[in-house]
Amino acid sequence: MPELTDIHYVRNIMEKHGFHVSKSLGQNFLINPTVCPRIAELGNAKPGFGILEIGTGVGVLTKELAKRADKVVAIELDQKLFPILEETLAGFENIKIIHGDAMQYDLKKLIAEEFQGLQVAVCANLPYYITSPMIMRLLEEKLDITSITVMVQKEAAQRICASVGSRESGAVTVAVAYHGEAMKLFDVSRGSFLPAPNVDSCVMQIALYPENPWNVQDEDLFFRMVRSGFSQRRKQLAGVLCNAFAISKSEISEIFETSGIVPSVRIEALTMPELVRLSNAFSQF
Ligand code: SAM
User: Fold this and answer.
1) Is pLDDT above 70 for 271?
2) In which region does residue 10 sit, left (phi positive, over 0), alpha (psi from -120 to 50) or beta (all else)?
3) Which atom of ligand 1 is nearest to the CA of 28?
4) What residue segments make up the domains of the chain, in order of their start?
């Protein structure tokens, strides 16, 4: 079977099945032969692991994952890819492809049913239009997974992997740092895809904490505070929170004093422990 990074083969098989790539589904398929083996190896595709993939395309990454892990379950939204996948992934007994929307699918149930006795990792070349919501979904559902290794647009990786307390950080940086440690693994140029997108990409990884280390007393309040702060990131945080939480200036001063943080600070300057202290002072108020 020819390689799925062979551009002529991929074009032929798509033509044979009358398949046309859909821009709106973020279909940019990997054709650089070095990228998928690296994602698979760095993304924990190894014995003892089950891998959840989001978006198979023609199966180029799926195949590399299945060569290394015990089992791969992939969710693909585009039914028109299924006849192609039947051909490209023929002979692999450890792959299951599910037709569905990864944003809606019951992932907790899927993991419990499909990966019994295995550790689970997520690997994907994510469709760009659901990058942040998909990552947030994977984190917020508190799934039993060890790592998330995903290709995203370079700018998204920079934001997600920034240090909390730096100018590059955002609400998504804090949300990711709350659940695990994020790092950029390697850059991938736009020429590595068919068709080539207008932007470069980056493979990044979130290693999830087995136990949450932050001691946040009220998660909802913590994330409400973070979202409000970053919605007006250039303003002084005390003023922003006064309005967002409808509390008085004297009350907010007391909360900042309890947490040992100056009220004139901007949210982007606060580190994770400082954000936690502030939110806990809020929840005790
Ligand atoms: N893994 C393949 C590769 O690297 O070549 C394909 C990656 S392509 C960037 C994204 C894939 O996700 C496409 O196959 C697309 O059809 C699929 N997709 C888009 N939206 C989806 C969704 N909501 N749920 C599941 N799959 C989706």
Assistant:
1) yes
2) alpha
3) 9
4) 7-208, 219-283
Cα separation, 74 vs 68, in Å, equals: 15
For the record, the structure tokens of 181 come out as 């440690």
Residue 208's nearest CA partner among 119, 101, 107 is: 119
Confidence of residue 1 (pLDDT cuts 50, 70, 90): low
Look at ligand 1, atom 17, and give the residue with the nearest C-alpha. Answer: 55
> In the 8-state DSSP scheme, what is residue 178?
H
Ligand 1 centroid to Cα of residue 25, in Å, is: 7
Q: How many residues does the structure list for the chain?
A: 285
Looking at CATH, the fold of the domain delimited by 219-283 is given as: Helicase, Ruva Protein; domain 3 (1.10.8)
184, containing H or E segment: strand 180-188
Q: What CATH number should be reported for the domain whose range is 7-208?
A: 3.40.50.150
Predicted confidence at residue 2, as pLDDT, reads: 73
Average pLDDT, the chain: 96
Residue nearest to atom 19 of ligand 1 (CA): 25
The residue to mutate among 27, 36, 104, having the most atoms of ligand 1 within 8 angstroms of its beta carbon, is 27
Residue-wise pLDDT tens digits, 67-107: 999 999 999 999 999 999 999 999 999 999 999 999 999 99
Whole-angstrom distance, CA of residue 44 vs CA of residue 51: 8
This prediction has a pTM of 0.95
Please report the pLDDT score of residue 77 as a whole number.
Answer: 98
Task: Name which residue sits closest to atom 14 of ligand 1, judged by CA.
Answer: 57
* CA of 55 relative to ligand 1 center, distance in Å: 3
